[in-house]
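Wait, can you check?
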Amino acid sequence: MEKEFVPYELALRLKELGFDEPCFGYYIETSEWIPASYSREGIVYPSNSDLLPEWVAAPTFSQCFRWFREKYGLYSWVELHNGYIDDSYYKKLPITWTIMESESGKQYYERDIDHNYLYYTYEEAELACLDKLIEIVESKQKEDGK
């Protein structure tokens, strides 16, 4: 189940960007993921503003990608690379990601003709895509002086 939640480092960066959605769990300090306590009704959804300042809400990957779509108009997807690699060195399918800004149509992607920036698991590409989404918003916030 822990694989469903973004790693602490990314969760912390999301918190710094203003991510304050209800989550099923949270991180205490820097290394341990602690699941949320459950109420008698069965569910507690802590958000960053509900937690102690040193705790960090642990969103799922799905929550993060939805948040970037809804808050910033950044649509993203992970996919198999559309090129065929005819080389016995590559034993796995190359996977990549794409991000598109809904307003401007600007695209960010990680594809390289020499396959230097492709990933060989979906999870690696998903982490890299989320990292890039965070980087894009951090950069825009710096430009806006936030």
Notes: The longest strand covers residues 74-80. The radius of gyration is 17 Å.
